[in-house]
Amino acid sequence: MKKKFARTALIVSCILVVILGAIYVMTKKDNVYEEDGVKYISKIEGTSFFVYYDGKWEKKFLKGVNIGAAKPGYFPGELAITKEEYLRWFQHISEMNAEVIRVYTTLKPAFYDALLEYNQKAEKPLYLIQGVWVKEETMAELNDAYANGEQIKNDFIKDATDLVDVLHGNATLPVKNGFASGEYKSDVSQYVIGWLMGIEWDPYFVQGTNDNNPERTSYTGSYLYTEGASPFEAVLCEVGDKTLVYEASNYQMTRAISFNNWLTTDMLDHPNEPNAKEDMAEFNMEHIKAQPVYKSGLFASYHIYPYYPDFLNHQKEYITFKDEDGEIDAYRAYLKDLIKEHTMPVLVAEFGVPASRGKAHDSLYSGFDQGDHSETEQGEILTKLLEDIYSEGYCGAIVFVWQDEWFKKTWNTMDLDLSDSRPYWSNPQTNEQEFGLLAFDPGEESVCDVDGDISEWDGDEPVSSTDNATVYVKSDEKYVYLMVKTTDFDFSKDSLYIPVDTIPGQGNTVDKAANISFECAADFVIRINGEKNSRITVDSYYDSFYYLYAEQFNMIAKNSGYVKKSNGIFNSMYLCLSRAVYLPVDKTTIPFSQYETGLLTYGDANPIHENYNSLADFCYKDGNIEIRIPWQLLNVMDPSTKQIMSDLYKNKGIVAEKTEGMYFGVGIVKNEATSSLQIGMKYYTWDAWTLPTYHERLKPSYYILLKAFADIN
User: Fold this and answer.
1) Residue 5, in any domain of the structure
2) 703 with 657, same domain?
3) Within its chain, how far is the Cα of 102 from the centroid?
4) Do 502 and 557 have their domain in common?
5) What proportions of the chain, in percent to the nearest 5, are helix, strand and coil?
6) Is 472 helix (H, G, I), strand (E, B) or coil?
7) Cβ–Cβ contacts within 10 Å for residue 673, how many?
8) What's the CA dihedral at 380, 384, 390, 393 to 10 degrees?
9) Of 88, 350, 352, 467, whose CB neighbour count within 10 A is largest?
10) Counted domains in the chain
């Protein structure tokens, strides 16, 4: 009887497995639509984007995030992100109420394996918009998509058709330096809602293709054709058509397609743009058309940021446009202008601002600058930009970017570091590194949270001391940390000085302006003088900003006194924002602009605290001061190999030299003091490293965006 019951139970279990398996298969099949022997999961109707899910077409506003290819310690071409990391990130992204991820190129099998595994278990899938990369170096070298036997066009097609096989889990890519390789077995094709092909096109490349091939103005294919196109647009049409044909022929499937674009190559005129390059060439997606047989359809896509190009700050109809709250909103004015040019859906495929200390561009009217935002401000700005995009009828908004990217460079800091070492340390002065919603904080755990709680300094040995102050020093992959214990120090009235000697053979033994002297020739002086007037200054002879923009580029006034060693002069520290520019319509010149990056921000830098400010540089509590200084503000070009900026004038440029360590001191000038102060200095060193340590942290902007995405249906 027991055996008969067991056999019956086994049979019932098998039947249930078959039924559940059939239901699972039917459910998955219901997410792919088939018509005339061709399957697809996305389609375009008018200016709307639809996704097929659960047996019906759903109109979508695509809420998503771009995912980069790198993590700390690695360049993107090394493709070092693991399957486990992707799975964890997908969970966070889904919990953020995002439905779409966009990647820029072919990733290694781990990415597609993770996407398939995640979506098979998830209540609702994460959809993928797949990019196809074009090498910028080759574009710059050839300056023509048809040059060298049509090399760029043919490579573009080959990479795209290889990706078709990748998405269907039917590819083996050979090992090739800087490219993904391996065996691709995971079929994720039912989750890929679109192609987004190409990169932010360089206008010289677009113009070069057009000028060198004036007769190639049309293309007619099985799925796409051109109408009134330029030679460059004809190239893109051909690439897209051959990609669609390949997938339809081999897998009986297509998907919606777009080609990347940005404001630099839009079809609009920007007569008050000061840089002619930004308005010299255009790519118009409307010149590429769909054949009747192509059911998935075309959409346009743009990377749109609020601070660049400069016409966003100067075009009259943009800077006079006001939103419902009466605020000038040049970003929304541009969105309104752009979408009128399109008969197809338009996706904002990148938008965002960095939560970085460093800044590279100002957005003059909104304050949505390229940098100098806290992580909370980042989330608030993302929400406003998202609302603008949604309100103007775009089909989606993809935030840039999911994770911080340590390997990135920025034009106004790239001369101050070593390009081959960027992934190995975190530089908050380089805004491009901190667009992420996910932070990679240095250390397996934080060595110091600048919040006034000095418990993490317990057991540390002081570096230098005086009668009323003792300074401690430590460091990690992002900052040099200082903690000063004081007695008889009035934070609101007194001044605390920390001289730093980083390079032998130069520096000042006196600070003339402060009437203080140092045991070692100091290259930097950190002055804590209340919440609003604290800063780090640099020996004028070692001032890279002055050297670059006065001595080398002749953009600011020269001062012969600055170029003499041991002159007793310490300069405020600046970053350049813009050279002088001429506005063609206004017929005026806007002078060279800069901002003081050495000004120190007071606040609580502990991420778990309610008053957390990611921009905080120092904090005072109970007579104790904690400070963090980015390595680059000490002219360190690579802390991982202990490389610092060498003598600027001796080398006639910015080059690196090896250091073993630095000297630090500390002293207090009382408010009523009139006599000079002499500060002793002692040695500090740190260990070099080959791979950085770090830990992940979701920024406040993640949680703010989570709510913003939830509010948009």
Assistant:
1) no
2) no
3) 14
4) yes
5) 30, 25, 40
6) strand
7) 12
8) -160
9) 352
10) 2
**Mean pLDDT value across residues 74-87:** 97
Q: Is the same domain home to 194 and 263?
A: yes
Question: 182 and 150 in one domain?
Answer: yes
User: What SS3 state is found at 199?
Assistant: coil
How many C-beta neighbours within 10 Å does residue 313 have?
A: 25
Beta-strand ranges (E) seen in 295-445 are 300-303, 346-351, 396-399, 438-442
Q: In angstroms, rounded to a whole number, what is the distance separating the alpha carbons of residues 416 and 544?
A: 8
Which residues partner with 39 through β-bridges? 34, 253
- For a pLDDT cut of 90, what percent of the chain falls above it? 94
| Tokens representing residue 678 in the block | 């002499």
Name which of 612, 691, 660, 616 is nearest 442 in CA terms.
691
- Evaluate whether residue 22 is within a structural domain: no
Do 356 and 363 touch, CB atoms closer than 8 A? no
* Same domain, residue pair 548 and 462: yes
Task: Return d(Cα 630, Cα 479) in angstroms, integer.
Answer: 5
70 within domain boundaries: yes
pLDDT digits (tens, 9 = 90+) for 622-657: 999 999 999 999 999 999 999 999 999 999 999 999
Do 294 and 146 share a structural domain? Answer: yes
Task: Give yes or no: residues 664 and 706 share one domain.
Answer: no
Per-residue pLDDT band at 673 (split at 50, 70, 90): low
Per-residue pLDDT reduced to its tens digit, 465-507: 999 999 999 999 999 999 999 998 999 999 999 999 999 999 9
Q: Is the pLDDT of residue 674 over 90?
A: no
Q: Decide: 488 and 468 in contact? Cβ < 8 Å.
A: yes
* DSSP element (H, E) containing 694: strand 694-698
Q: How many CB atoms within 10 Å of residue 174?
A: 7
Domain-located, residue 8: no
- The span from the CA of 26 to the CA of 32, in Å, is 10
Q: What's 241's domain CATH number?
A: 3.20.20.80
- Structural domain that includes position 495: 456-691
Task: Please give the helix or strand (H or E) that residue 39 lies within, else none.
Answer: strand 38-40
User: In angstroms, what CA-CA distances link 403 with 66, 352, 436, 625?
Assistant: 9, 13, 4, 31
Q: Among 67, 129, 61, which Cα is nearest to 92's? A: 67
DSSP state for residue 602 in the 8-state scheme = B
Per the document, the length of the chain is 713
φ, ψ for residue 243, nearest 5 deg: -65, -45
Residue 17's pLDDT is what?
Answer: 40
Query: Does residue 500 sit in the same domain as residue 405?
Result: no
pLDDT above 80: residue 216: yes
The DSSP line for 85-99 is HHHHHHHHHHHTT--
Contacts of 557 (CB under 8 A, 6+ apart): 550
Whether the Cβ atoms of residue 229 and residue 291 lie closer than 8 Å to each other: no
